[in-house]
UniProtKB/TrEMBL annotation:
Lineage start: Bacteria, Pseudomonadati, Nitrospinota/Tectimicrobiota group, Candidatus Tectimicrobiota
Name the UniProt record assigns to this protein: DUF11 domain-containing protein
Ranges annotated as spanning the membrane: none
Endpoints of the signal sequence: none
Organism field: Tectimicrobiota bacterium
One Pfam family from the record: DUF11
Amino acid sequence: TATVTSASSDPETANNTVTTTATVVPPVVGLADLTVTVEDAPDPVSAGSSLVYTIVVTNDGPNRATGVTLIDRLPAGVTLVSAVPTTGNCLGTSTVTCALGPLENGASVAVVITVIPDTPGTITNTVEGFAPETDPVPANNSAAVTTTVL
């Protein structure tokens, strides 16, 4: 409602107020439930030998996920050898960021990351997947695997 007033006398005050209604429609945001898994091989692994992480990002829907990104903050004490996705590309050394592109409902993309652990002990690798869409189950957007290094 808007009302107009004046310091001068108004002979017709009935037209000084107007009421209108506006509908605000929020933008439609799709839902895309990403699930991330990670496996290691071999486990245990010898220090100085290759350790392979196989990471899979799956879109459990119900809609298409656009701009899917995977982030792997590699554990301390490993040296990156390679990061190869089935689609998209990966960049980085201690943190590997993979731009995986769109992922249809029900589709998956894999990323194979090879590292060399430097010293004996236990290392844990945690990976996270992201998309611009609202994720109804964000708890399954990350995964971790612990490896014994001999």
